[in-house]
## 1
Amino acid sequence: MQPNKTYVASDGYEYFMCPMTEFKITQVENVGTHLGTYAVDFASGTAGYRAPYYAPATVKCIKTIPSYGEATWQTVNKVHCPNGYFGIVTFETVHDNTFNAYVGMVIKQGQQLGNMGDAGRASGVHLHIEFTQSANSSMGYNSYGVYTFNAVESYVDDTMFVDNTNIIDGKAGNWRKTSSSSSGSSSFDVSQLIQEDGIATMTVDAVQARLNSPTGTVVRKYNTGDEIRYYWKWVGNGHRYIVWKEGSNYILLAVSGTEKQGEEPWATFRAPDETPSEPEEPETPETPEEPAKEFPDSVKYKGIDISQWNGDVDVSGQEFVIIRAAFGTNTDETFLNNVEKCRKANIPFGVYLYDYALNDDQALEQPIYLYNLLKEHDIVPDLGVWFDMEDADHYKSKNGVLNKERCTKNCKIFCDYFKERGYYTGIYSSTSWFDAYIEDLGYPKWIADWGPVDNGTCQGDFSNQGVMHQYTSIPLDKDVMYVEMDVMKSNPIEVEEPEDKPEVPAFPELDVDAINSFYRNWAKIAERILG
């Protein structure tokens, strides 16, 4: 797009535009530091140039992280996107060294939004950007430890038009201008298919195959060297396509960057190898496939985990609930109310504490705090006491204690304390954290793993690794249990405390207001602390 220019459709709503006057892509989605996301890194044509970028539509800033030059923006009104989407778009921009955005700031389409940069430990000057075609701005860490939107993300080439933008290296994206917008429909018609039996070998990476339309749902990607057998070709939507069928569906794959034959090819082509024809055998009726199971057979119960960041949650219909009781030595604001709701609905519940300890003394003070909280309110959790080990707000890393020794020690001190007092206890963390930061202590594990992309479904069976699995954050954290609930029963016992026990240094006062303002959802609670 060009600065200070507006791009408005005939209905009066803005087109959502590429925010740059030129770009080359330096990292695509779902690789490297973008694993499990649709984020893309853009640089200018001049290495190191901190090129300006502009508001792709009239947008409002809804969140900032100045140390990373990071802001979350949301369109003020509905916008038109190349894939036919018409609605609110939310997006994240990162690495602006000249960062001056603030929550509530409104930038009109075409006005400068920021500059490419390298703030936040970026590798080289660029703009990191990712989109969700929704009004859901919740973000958190996925199973790869990458900070991203919790809502389903949208591909950059499905979200922004590229009018008046010089594309230096578009990495096989399906880039479209407003003049070729699908406007909610596709011009693709099977009657336009040209029959051709061939094999294509891709010469570029990350080309998206789409379902039943050049702007349809992305079903998979093809990279350099991949071979595809196709039976038709089609020209339109700014590209040349090969087409084949899978079941009753047509799959379209762009094989050039233009509609003109021989220009910007993304593949080479050859005829299929000749093979002797086999006599046809009579067709036999296909055995209907069994519908895919929503959950693996190992699942015994389904439930949720909640905290104050979920607001007033209706727990009815849940088979179990895990409730945040505290973080550090601070009580979750909704803890007692959530316990009461579960009791009234006769729903078994467990509790957890989010770790903030930086040393052994603080690590001991946390279970003492939670133990006294439970005793004070006569609460014996049905499903144990859990220790939430993560670093969503980078508190550990900022204080130099993000290492396996410290994380393991904190887990051991917490679980040993409650085990000694007769409680069922265990550790919550992501699959990657259990590998990288927590030694196996023999305590039960509550595994957080949302799959490659969090889509609200249970994408794995972790019954051989843990007793519970948090499988999604959409629309809030959902969990499954692999064991009978009686296994998690606690039988609290009194432990005689030494009369002359050493004084425990006071736990440092956490900046709760700062935590509250940045809390967002990662692999634990629906609105997790954001750093």
Note: Residues 181-186, 516-531 have pLDDT under 50 and may be disordered.
## 2
Amino acid sequence: MLKELRTWFQMLDGIDAGTTGIDTIPSGLAADTQPGACGTVAPPRSLIFIVDPDAASAQQLAAMLSASGVDAVLFAKGETLAAGLRRSTPELIFLDVRAQGEQALDVLERLGQARFSGGVQLVGPQGSPVVESMRRMGVREALNMLAPLGKPISASAVRRLLLDQKLAAPGSGPLVDVHDALARNQIEFWYQPKIDLKKRQIAGVETFARLRHPELGLLRPAEFMTGASEGDLLALAERALISALKAATHFSRLGIPLRLAVNMPMTGLLNLPISELVLAYGPKHHKWPGLLLDVTEAQIHQNLAEVQAVSRGLTACGTYLAIDEFGHGGLSLANLRALPIAELKVDRAFVGDCAVDLVKSTACRSVIDLAHLLGCVTVGIGVEKAADMIVLQGMGCDVGQGFFFGQPMPEDVLIASMLQRAVAAPPRPAMRVAAPGDARARWN
């Protein structure tokens, strides 16, 4: 079975895993080039105009642009923009579309009259017909209309846009420094529910890091983890582990014994005193189902002997492994059986559109069958469509995780949601004990 599974993954190598899903005004006009280090001349910075009557929103966007080495000038209305265009020509204009779009319409007409040749980036409610109407209007004005951005704008979306348009300053680096964020206690941890596909109830949660920046807003790992050192990764892993254990203790006291999963880099698995941390911060309740450490198959395969040695002490404190990105790491069946694996994750590259793609659905089924052969729970990650969820359920996938069920959320929001569901849920019918000859028990 494992050999067959590897064959399927080789066929799927070209499938993009994708991403899902959702966090001081810079100097005004672009300055002349200034001398850099050793007498060199620094390259000119790109110039972008922002048209938005909401000063706080505009300043947050300007901070994101500044982090990528771009100058921004803010305008509250179209009349002042016209004066700005007479002084300087930006490479790109961000235009906020509000209400019925009257101001956006005025700005687009002014840009058309000025024969503006730069890009125009509309920003507004996702899927808004007003935004689409403004985009078509801009096209009629012969403007270079970019694909609209939804609100709120994420720093990663801005970063991708600047890279696509070749506007980011060379070597501008990550948006923020994770080491500095850790020192300033700007990292917090959110929790995404994992749903039992048979019982249709929450089966656990996974921990995700978020960085709350005073200027850039709420950032996801992709927006602050680039360039993180091994020391930073270790510090972040320890903080995530302690936060998850404290949350598990809180859940347990509320009568919600959830198993929490924490993404664990190999440096954390091999170097953190995990058993001691679990004993110090974890729930003491006997019904606590324990802790999961998410590790990629490739990382385990590259450090197999060390992982096997460390794993011996994990089960004693109720800690098990969840294999992420399975199918890309080369572990043998014997290797898998020798490790304390509780979950095998079906990669989002195979889950997305598995309802309509035969190759993907076959790969999903292969992982599910192998997991059950090993006695593991299977988790389909990246579930975004009801059709994919139904197909996974039909294949026997145990747990689903993804935006279809819920996005990562703060601990208090998760608890409020679970308590609200518990209060609103009707009494569960009792299951009748199957009588001799019954094919199965039935609900009363």
Note: Confidence is low (pLDDT under 50) at residues 12-42, 427-444.
## 3
Amino acid sequence: MERKDFYKCELFNDKGLNSHRAVQVVMYLKLIIGFFLVLLQGALIGFLGFPKAFDGLLRKKINLKPGTPSRVVWEKLPFPMTYKVYVFNVTNEHEIGQGAKPKVAEIGPFVFEEWKDKYNIEDIEDEDAVSFNMRNTFIFRPDLGLDGEQLITMPHPLLQFMAITTLHNFPENLPGLAMGLDLLFKPQSAFVTSSFMDLFYRGIDVNCADEHPAVQAICGNFQKGLVPGAIPVNATHYKFSLLGSTNHTNAGRFKVSRGKSKSFTLGQVLTFNGQDRLNVWPNSSTGSCNQLSGTDGTIFAPSKRLYKNLWSFSAALCCSVSFRLSGRTIYNHLPALRYDLDFREPNICCKSSKNWISGTVDLERCTGTPMLASLPHFLKSDLPPDRLVDGLMPNTESHSSGMVFEQISGTVLAVHNRLQFSLQVEPVPQVSVMSKLRAQVMPLFWIEESLELNEMFAKSLYKQIFLPMSINNIYRWISIVIGGLGLAVGIFLMYRQQTAQRVGAN
């Protein structure tokens, strides 16, 4: 082809050139539209569609409607919690009887399996609620700790409790009570020495066969079932233990939200023993301490919102307690939040007197006994030094109470509930063995209720929750990056084409 004919071909004449440019423009427009759709799809599905669908799926699975996986686990925990008891053994009981400062030595752990289940379950459809009775069953495991036959010396849990409670509420009855206690227990001191299992589970003997009126006045409370921890053996004999009566027995009737219609209410306690608020703490009609705040402690609502506090109602303390957010952590490769229990204000308001000690819960209004609850070894409490005993060594690692919480699924990955019970000792002049005691907070024992979900469960949770979220996260950002880059390239090529066209036209 001659050169002049070559330049006459369609590609190089104005008509051909314009046609070629038009084809390019269309191609660039398609490129821009295509990559824009990729970007838009990634954004819409990744940020809106998938999260909404995933949240809907979680709400269907994580509620207490019959048949859901959450309901099955909630009704009966498929594995036991570990329950440990540590006791403060008194080493100078005779000196204490003369007014000396107590000395204690911690003995433990005594280890149990704790199985949690709920029974008498009734669904209330129109309230989206479920009512039930709570029950804890303990199985002693001497192979995991001490054998339970170790001798323990501690304040006599009947002698001192009865005397101090009467001193507070019915001081005019103290002379008669003192006579009855002397005949019933024949005490040589204000303390009792027995094996751990007898004191805490099997029970110590209470013989009510003596017909003396002072003895029968005391034993009448046993006969009426007014002494917590006392179990009748026959018409005149009883067994008393500190924890035995809590084994495989009713811990109260609850009504909680199922969280089907409103997922954020999942597990919230609505009533306890038929009441929608307590009547325990001062200003019972308006006081916030009497409100039933939080869940029953066995389930929490899933949430994407970061909560500074998780509330749980404790029947043992007659109030709700707050687990406060302390930071983020990684548990078996899962991102999680750490919450810690703190009995100091404003995390707790269950106090009943002007002499309330920050970092403790006064249990006298709750249990009718002169007891305090706190963290072990009075960790994070403001107990005055003159009321402390020798032998306490609080440390955060061993004595704090808290949980590791995965908020998206509402799963408690690990929990270490630690709680100490102490007696508020006071001298009682009418009771000879208590007449010289110093006013003292005497630690009795502390318990640890713990559960750590294993790596297999963590992997299962990862596959159900975090793997789909990770895939969605990768998909949306790849779509956005590819769509964004393609869109930018398309716009650039279109701009260059238009620039070249303007230059050619000139």
Note: The mean pLDDT is 88.
## 4
Amino acid sequence: MGLGMAGNLARLLKSQQAPASLARKELFVYNRTASKAQPLTSHPDLSIQLAASPAEVAASCSIMCLMLADDVACDSMLQQLQQCDLQGKVIVNHSTNTPEFAMAAVAQLRGKGCEYIAAPVWGRPDAAAAARLIVVPAGPAEAVARVQPFLAAHGRLLPTQDAAHKANAMKLIGNFTLFGFVETMCEALTLADKNSIPREDMLAFVDAFFPAPSIQGYARRIASESLDAGAGFTVDLALKDVRYMRQLAEMSRCPLRVADLVFNSLLAASANGYGLKDVGAMFLTSQQAAGILPPGKHLDEEQEERS
């Protein structure tokens, strides 16, 4: 969890909107690389304490929030937390997981007297900092109600699902939709380049037909070739998500032809050294396939030659 989401929680705990039982309580954070938590704990306007271990978090907090890379990382954290007394506590997982992970987590934590809420989010770090994330919560109604103020602190809540694994399925389906747009935009801008249509004119088309900040943001990053991910969504993380959605598709006996196409575009981008670039680096594969960018040549090299 980055500064945006952690800051939202810290500000809520200091505000009058905090649940009475948690008002004026402190926020504890843990990261296995302590230096990564430093921007949180050193922030002058936030009261955030660094925990030395997951056990310290479990001992100090009644509500614990996770934001990790994948099923493996989340499972490792849950195994550590299950060594602690979790009776009466709630674990909220904002990560992008498989539905199978959520079902296993619910079963494991139920035996510890702990409720599990899946609440994956959509949005980049700037959206998190502005409390404009989109959250899909899922789990037992009473537990979701208990953590609702903390979920709402991050932005807009979609309808609550009645089982944790449904939120994870919905997140994967949502990402499938977004990645499909990114693939389409990469190909559309490449076709526009081949026909001498200015990219700004294509962006005007996007603004007219898809007036949504996330869609417009992706289109502009691709058109400007602004592919540094920063703290945003990388090609390699997107590959993980597409693997998860293809697993879901196979289990559901539901072909996802677009996901297969996106997977290959992401894989090609990663193979060309763009694994840590923004997911919009799929533009690279479109440009190469169209002969605009020679195979094996990176976009930043092409930009240097143009300048």
Note: The first helix runs from residue 3 to 14.
